[in-house]
Amino acid sequence: RSLAFRKKRIGFIMLVIYTDASYNTENGNAGWASIIFKQTDDPKDVTLKYVFGGRFKCCDSNVAEFMAIYFTIRRLEMCSIQETDINIMTDSLNSIEFLAVCISPNPRNLRKWYLVKKNKIEKECDEISHSPILNKIKFKHIMGHSNIEGNIFADAISKLYMKLHHQNVIKQKIEKIKRFSPLPLITISSI
């Protein structure tokens, strides 16, 4: 029995994803980004797999952070995901609360459900709750602006998408960010 467990863990692969969003209160533009790392059972064996991002209209920063997670899950559904564990890291506690309502609605927690309804994200909550990859995902809160490289990179890219709308300009700006970061850049795409 222990041999079977050890066999299963050898070559274990998971995805570690950092999501972030930026919101402009003046014009309602929001940018989102997710940085997706592939990690094996060796903690030193981490490679960048994808960088996703995009721009959308939004009503506030909490909803923007939630939508970054939503867009990431939708994008992962389109990819062929072989990994059995997916860890989505966010620096937004409100997003974690929205996700809790999506995944396991509790009639006692009317305040959180009211926030979901008020922010008009019921459709997105329903789609997340029926996602075929939901059973593979764990959501984790991390501290924002705490020098976690994946979070810093996601923050920088989400700000680019919020401010700019031309893909070529965004790619040029990301190339400048790359020079200051040891992270390789594999793919940039937008929903």
How would you portray this structure in words?
The relative contact order is 0.20. The longest helix has 18 residues. By secondary structure, this protein is α/β, with parallel strands linked by helices. Helix content is 43%, strand content 25%. The N and C termini lie far apart (44 Å).
Q: SS-based structural class?
A: alpha/beta
- The largest sheet has its strands arranged as 5-4-1-2-3-6
Inertia-based shape:
globular
Oligomer: single chain
Element-level helix/strand string: HEEEHEHHHEHHE
Percent range for β-strand residues: 25-35%
Q: Could you give a short account of the major beta sheet?
A: 6 strands, mixed
Number of helices: 7
Q: What is the helix content?
A: 40-55%
| Number of beta strands | 6
Instruction: Return the average pLDDT rounded to an integer.
Output: 76
Unreliable stretches:
1-10, 182-191
Radius of gyration: 17 Å
Distance between the termini: 44 Å
Q: In a few lines, what is going on in this structure?
A:
With 191 residues, the protein is of the alpha/beta class. The protein is built from 7 helices and 6 strands.
Structure characteristics:
single chain, 191 residues, alpha/beta, six-stranded mixed sheet, 7 helices, 25% strand, disordered N terminus, disordered C terminus
Question: How are the secondary structure elements laid out?
Answer:
Layout: H1 2-9, E1 13-23, E2 29-40, E3 46-57, H2 61-78, E4 85-90, H3 93-103, H4 110-118, H5 122-129, E5 137-141, H6 149-163, H7 167-179, E6 188-189
Parallel strand pairs: 1-4, 3-6, 4-5
Antiparallel strand pairs: 1-2, 2-3
Helix pairs in contact: 2-3, 3-5, 6-7
